[in-house]
Write a structure and sequence with these properties.
Keywords: Phosphoprotein
CATH superfamily of the largest domain: EAL domain
GO molecular function: catalytic activity
Strand content: 15-25%
CATH class of the largest domain: Alpha Beta
Strand order of the largest sheet: 18-19-21-22-23-24-25-26
Radius of gyration: 33 Å
Number of helices: 25
Number of strands: 26
Shape: elongated
GO biological process, one term: phosphorelay signal transduction system
Protein name: Response regulator receiver modulated diguanylate cyclase/phosphodiesterase
Number of domains: 4
CATH architecture of the largest domain: Alpha-Beta Barrel
Mean pLDDT: 84
Distance between the termini: 67 Å
Pfam families: EAL, GGDEF, Response_reg
C-alpha cells in the first residue's frame, strides 16, 4: 500500500510542527501549509489522501479552504477541521463547509494518529459502501437481478433468475408467494403488493432468508403494480451491503481498539436512558474512569504496550458483568451496565438503574479494585491504578454532556486526592476544572509568547570547591512578571503533552548560554533534563544535534539527565539511543537515582556516566542513619561500576563535608547557590568553597 499523504494547514507554526511530528510518528507523509492560500496551492500541485485545516487562518480561513478543496477533491476526500471552538454554531459551520469531521483543541498528540486512521477507515468503508450501491444500481439497469412477475392472486407467473442468487432464495413459477417463502417473509411481500396495487406507487421492502449453509442472506424486493392486478417484483441480494452497513455502524459506534462503545455510541445510549429515567423518576449514575499514569507507559514502553494495556483494561470491565462473577450487592445494577471508551485511557460506565446515590460508590469501588490489579504488559509487571469520578442524574445534570463533564471533573478530584480512589461530583469541583483549562491555555500561550526562562543551579567540585557544571532549570515568567514554580506546571505539562515543546526550548537555550560562557573563557558542563516523552521521541538525536549545531557548544559540555522512569523499557531502542548520544560525546546522567521502579541491572547494560543522588536521601544527613546507609551504598555501587556521583539538595556545610568525605564527585544545593539567571553564573564561578571532610572512606 502506498504511503498516505496528509496536508496540514495551520498558521500556528508550533501546532503545525507538533501535528506533523505526531502524524509522521504514526507513519504518514505530511506536507505543511502556513495559511489557507498556501493550502489551496499545495493541493493543486499534488494529490493528498486527507487534509487537516485550522479554522482561524489569515488570507483564507479554514471554512473557505474546506469549500474549495471539497469542490476540487470531491466528496470522498476526508477533511478534518481543527478548532478550539466547541460551540454548536462553529461545528455546524464546519460541516456546512464540507468538513468530514472535526478535532477539538487541545489536541492529544499521542492519539492523533489513531484518530486519523479511524477517519481514513471510515471514509474508505463509506466509499466501499457507495461503490456497492453503484454496482447494484448498474445491475438493476441491466436487469441481472431476479425478476418475478406475479398475477392478481399472488401466483408467480414468470421468474428471470439472477445466476448468482442461491437456489434456496429464488422462487419457482407456479408457486404462490406463501408457498415460495416462509410465512413471515410472504406476509411482508403480500402486504407490500397490496400497498403498491392500492397506491399505484412502487414499494420496497427488505427481508432475511436462512439458506442451507445456515448463513442468513439479506434481500430487497421492489414491487410495482402493472395494471392494478399483475405486478413485478425485482429481487436483489443485499447481503454485501448489509455487511458494509454493519461494519460502518461498528466504526461509528464502537471503539476499534477495545470493542467497547465509543463516545458517540455511549452518548446516544446515555441520552436514551436519561429520557427513560425522566419518565420513570428513577436515578442513574455515570462513572468516569482514568488509568493513573497511563501516559508514562505510552512514553516509556511505547504505544503498542499502551494499546495492550487499554485492551486488558477493557477486558476487565467486560469481565465484571459476566454471569457468575457478581457479588450480591449491586449485581442487578451491573447486569445492565454499559461500558465505553471515550478516548485515550478514559472509560465510562453507565449504571442506568440505581435506587439512591450511595448505591454507586460500592460498585465504583469494586470496579476500581478490579482495574487496579497488576498488569503484565510487554513482559513487565505494571502497577496501574484507576481514579473514578461519579456523577448522578438528576442531581448533577440533566443531559449527557453535563453528566459526563461532571463525572470527569470528579475523576480529576480523585486524582488530586492521591489517585486510586472514587469521588462524587460536587459543584465546588467546577472551579478546579476551570483552573485546569486555564492552566493549559496559559501554557500554550506561554509557548507562543516564549514566556519560559532557563535558570541555572551550580554544581561544585567536591574536591576543589569550584563550580564545574550547572543544571538548567525551567521557570515560567508570566506577562505580569510573576514566576510560576515548576511543580505548579511541569506535571500538568507532562500530562497534556506540552512538555516536549518546553523541553526543546530549554535544551536550545541552555546550549546557547553554555556556548556563550565558553567563548568568554568559562567552560562549564550544562546538564539538561529530558522528560520520558522527549527521550522516547524518534527525533531526539536530531533535536540534540540541532541544538549543538545552532549554539556551537561542544558535545562534551552537554549532559542529559534522564529519570529511571524513562528507562523503564530497557530494550534495544533505549540502548541504541543512549549509545548514539554517548557516541557524540554527550554525557548521560541518571537523575533521582534510587527513587524509581526499575531494576539496578540496567546500570551494567546502559551507557550511563553519572548518577545523581536524590535530595530525599541527602535530607537529614549527617544524623539520619537510614539515609546515611543508603548514600554510602549508592556511592560504593557507583565507584564499583565506574560512575561519577552528584549529590542534590545539599543545604548545610556538614552535609557537604560528609558527602565530600564519602567521595562524591560534585555537590548541588542551596548551600552554594539557588538557581540564578545566566548572567549571574560567571560571578558565582569566580567564587570558591572550602569543603572539609567529616567522614572518610575506610
Amino acid at each position: 500500500m502506498s504511503e498516505v499523504r496528509i496536508l496540514v494547514a495551520d498558521d500556528d507554526l508550533t501546532t503545525a510542527l507538533l501535528m506533523q511530528a505526531a502524524l509522521v510518528r504514526a507513519g504518514f507523509a505530511v506536507t505543511l501549509a502556513a495559511d489557507g492560500e498556501e493550502a489551496v496551492q499545495a493541493f493543486a500541485q499534488a494529490p493528498f489522501d486527507m487534509v487537516l485545516l485550522d479554522v482561524d487562518m489569515p488570507r483564507l480561513d479554514g471554512y473557505a479552504v474546506c469549500r474549495e478543496l471539497r469542490r476540487r477533491g470531491g466528496e470522498e476526500l476526508p477533511i478534518l477541521m481543527v478548532t478550539g471552538m466547541d460551540d454548536t454554531a462553529s461545528i455546524e459551520a464546519a460541516f456546512k463547509a464540507g468538513a468530514t469531521d472535526f478535532i477539538s483543541k487541545p489536541i492529544t498528540w499521542a492519539l492523533l494518529g489513531h484518530r486519523v486512521r479511524y477517519v481514513l477507515r471510515a471514509t474508505r468503508a463509506a466509499a466501499a459502501l457507495r461503490g456497492a450501491n453503484a454496482r447494484n444500481a448498474a445491475m438493476l439497469d441491466a436487469l441481472p437481478d431476479t425478476l418475478v412477475r406475479i398475477d392478481g392472486r399472488n401466483h408467480i407467473v414468470e421468474v428471470r433468475t439472477d445466476p448468482g442468487m442461491d437456489a434456496c432464495c429464488a422462487p419457482t413459477p407456479g408457486q404462490t408467494l406463501a408457498a415460495a417463502y416462509p410465512p413471515a417473509v410472504s406476509a411482508i411481500l403480500e402486504r407490500a403488493l397490496d400497498e403498491a396495487r392500492r397506491s399505484g406507487k412502487p414499494r420496497t421492502v427488505e427481508f432475511q432468508l436462512a439458506c442451507t449453509d445456515d448463513r442468513p442472506s439479506h434481500h430487497e424486493a421492489r414491487l410495482s403494480s402493472i395494471d392494478g392486478s399483475e405486478a413485478l417484483c425485482l429481487l436483489r441480494d443485499i447481503t454485501e451491503r448489509k455487511e458494509y452497513e454493519r461494519r460502518i455502524h461498528r466504526l461509528a459506534y464502537y471503539d476499534s481498539l477495545t470493542g467497547l462503545a465509543n463516545r458517540r455510541g455511549f452518548i446516544e445510549r446515555l441520552e436514551r436512558e436519561i429520557a427513560r429515567a425522566r419518565q420513570t423518576g428513577q436515578c442513574l449514575a455515570i462513572l468516569f474512569l482514568d488509568l493513573d499514569r497511563f501516559k508514562s507507559v505510552n512514553d516509556t514502553l511505547g504505544h503498542a504496550a499502551g494499546d495492550a494495556l487499554l485492551q486488558e483494561a477493557a477486558e476487565r470491565l467486560r469481565h465484571i458483568t459476566r454471569p457468575g462473577d457478581f457479588i450480591s450487592h449491586g449485581a442487578e445494577t451491573l447486569e445492565s451496565a454499559e461500558f465505553a471508551r471515550l478516548g485515550g485511557d478514559e472509560f465510562t460506565v453507565l449504571l442506568p438503574r440505581i435506587d439512591k446515590a450511595e448505591d454507586a460508590l460500592p460498585i465504583a469501588e469494586r470496579i476500581r479494585a478490579n482495574m487496579s490489579a497488576p498488569y503484565m504488559v510487554a513482559g513487565q509487571r505494571l502497577a496501574i491504578t484507576t481514579s473514578i469520578g461519579i456523577a448522578l442524574y438528576p442531581e448533577d445534570g440533566h443531559d449527557a454532556a453535563m453528566l459526563i463533564k461532571h463525572a470527569d471533573t470528579a475523576m480529576y478530584d480523585a486524582k488530586a486526592h492521591g489517585r486510586n480512589g472514587c469521588r462524587y461530583y460536587n459543584p465546588e469541583l467546577t472551579a478546579e476544572a476551570v483552573h485546569r483549562v486555564e492552566l493549559e491555555a496559559g501554557l500554550r500561550r506561554a509557548l507562543e509568547l516564549d514566556e519560559f526562562i532557563v535558570m541555572y543551579q551550580p554544581q561544585v567540585d567536591a574536591r576543589g570547591g569550584r563550580i564545574d557544571a550547572v543544571e538548567a532549570l525551567v521557570r515560567w515568567r508570566r506577562a505580569d512578571g510573576s514566576l510560576v514554580p515548576p511543580l505548579d506546571f511541569i506535571p500538568f505539562a507532562e500530562e497534556c503533552g506540552l512538555i516536549a515543546g518546553i523541553g526543546a526550548r530549554v535544551l536550545l537555550r541552555a546550549c546557547h548560554d553554555a556556548a556563550a560562557w565558553m567563548r568568554r573563557g568559562l567552560r562549564l558542563r550544562v546538564a539538561v533534563n529530558l522528560s520520558p516523552m522527549q527521550f522516547r521521541a524518534p527525533d531526539l538525536l536530531e533535536r540534540v544535534c540541532e541544538a549543538l549545531d545552532r549554539s556551537g557548544l561542544p558535545p562534551g559540555l552537554l549532559e542529559l539527565e534522564i529519570t529511571e522512569g524513562a528507562l523503564m523499557e530497557d530494550d534495544a531502542r533505549t540502548r541504541a539511543t543512549l549509545a548514539a548520544l554517548r557516541g557524540l560525546g554527550i554525557g548521560i546522567a541518571l537523575d533521582d537515582f534510587g527513587t524509581g521502579y526499575s531494576s539496578l541491572s540496567y546500570l551494567k547494560r546502559l551507557p550511563l556516566g553519572r548518577l545523581k543522588i536524590d535530595r530525599s536521601f541527602v535530607t537529614g544527613l549527617p544524623d539520619d542513619a537510614d539515609n546515611l546507609a543508603i548514600v554510602r551504598a549508592i556511592l560504593a555501587l557507583a565507584r564499583h561500576l565506574g560512575f561519577r556521583i552528584t549529590a542534590e539538595g545539599v543545604e548545610t556545610a556538614a552535609q557537604a563535608a560528609l558527602l565530600a568525605g564519602l567521595e562524591a564527585d560534585s555537590l548541588q544545593g542551596y548551600l552554594f547557590s539557588r538557581p540564578v539567571v545566566a548572567t549571574e553564573i560567571e560571578s558565582i564561578a569566580a567564587r570558591g568553597w572550602t569543603i572539609g571532610a567529616l567522614d572518610r572512606v575506610g
